[in-house]
Each structure stands twice: as structure tokens, then as C-alpha cells.
Amino acid sequence: MTLPWPTPDKTGPGEESVWDYPRPPRLETFAGSITIELGGDTIASTDRAWRVLETSHPPTYYLPPNAFRDGVLRAATGSSWCEWKGMASYYDLVTDARVAERAGWTYLTPTRGFEAIAGAVAVMAAQVDRCTVNGEQVQPQPGGFYGGWITSWVKGPFKGIPGSRGW
Q: Which pTM does this prediction carry?
């Protein structure tokens, strides 16, 4: 079953709608606090990152590799292809207490327009204990396939819910 084309949620001051994001997606710098926790440890922390904004998707955040604690990123097998960014490689995220398999990914040689995120790492929020943006705990993009992070200032509805494949 495919849902009808959605009606965007209303936005207020300081809020943004994923339905105002472009297609093809846009890359922008992000100057704010980001943390990622796994196995009871903060495994990444930065105040400089990038976000990819695409129609119907909450932002996907890409952190510089030096934002991750030493030893957390372990190369994983396999790859995938993004029509916008190119070939993705994967990482397992590893702590003494927990391993999140293929929970991180990177574009080592991204396509034109996305060169700034070469080697930067995005993380599936649903596969770790906690991710925050500016101190707010994010909600993972629904569906388990996409890597967007939902915060209170980003409004949907979001691709990934059942029936949204055609959005």
C-alpha cells in the first residue's frame, strides 16, 4: 500500500519542514553540538559537522572522523550506492560493552557537490544508545533504512513510515 502524497506538518518560528528541503539533496555545514553514545560511553563528540537535507527526510549528520574516540570505528564488509553521494563504505561501532554492526557509514570519494564529507561518518541513531544535537536527544528516522535524525525543530511527515516508499 502506498500512502497518498503527504500534507506537510505546520512549522513555527525556528522550525523547518523536510518538505522544504531540496531534491536532489543539499549539503550544508552545521555548527552545533553533536554527541553519540554506545555501550554507556560517549563515542563521538563534535561542534562541527555537515548535514544532508533531502525532501521528505530528516537531516543526516556527518561527523569528521576525529570526532570519534580512538578504536570505535572498525571497517565493516560490504558497500552500497547512493544516487546522490556515490559509493558508501560501512563501519561497525565498537566499545568494550557493545558492538553496533554496520551502524556507521562514509563516502571516501563522494560525488561532485558532496566532496566536503569525504571520510566523514554518519551513524544510524536507531543502532546506538543515544544521539544528541544541541543537547536534544534525536529520534531515528522511521523504517530502519534511512539515517536521518529527528529533532523537535524538524517537521515531517518523514519518509520511512509504512507506505511512504513513493514519496
A: 0.96
Domains and CATH numbers, the chain: 18-147 (2.170.150.40)
Paired with 104 in beta bridges are 91, 123
Characterise 153 by phi-psi region: left (phi > 0), alpha (psi -120 to 50), beta (else).
alpha
Please say whether the beta carbons of 73 and 91 come within 8 A.
yes
CA distance 111 to 91: 20
All residues at 6 or more sequence positions from 59 whose CB lies less than 8 Å from its CB, including other chains: 51, 52, 53, 148, 149, 154
Per residue in 53-66, pLDDT (tens digit) is 999 999 999 999 99
Q: Which residues contact 53 (CB under 8 A, 6 or more apart)?
A: 18, 21, 22, 25, 26, 27, 28, 59
- Are residues 167 and 28 in contact, defined by beta-carbon separation less than 8 angstroms? no
CA angle, residues 26, 44, 92, in degrees to nearest 5: 85
CA distance 159 to 96: 34
> E strands within 64-120?
73-82, 86-94, 99-106
Which tens digit of pLDDT belongs to each residue from 110-128? 999 999 999 999 999 999 9
Sole residue written with cell 578504536: 71
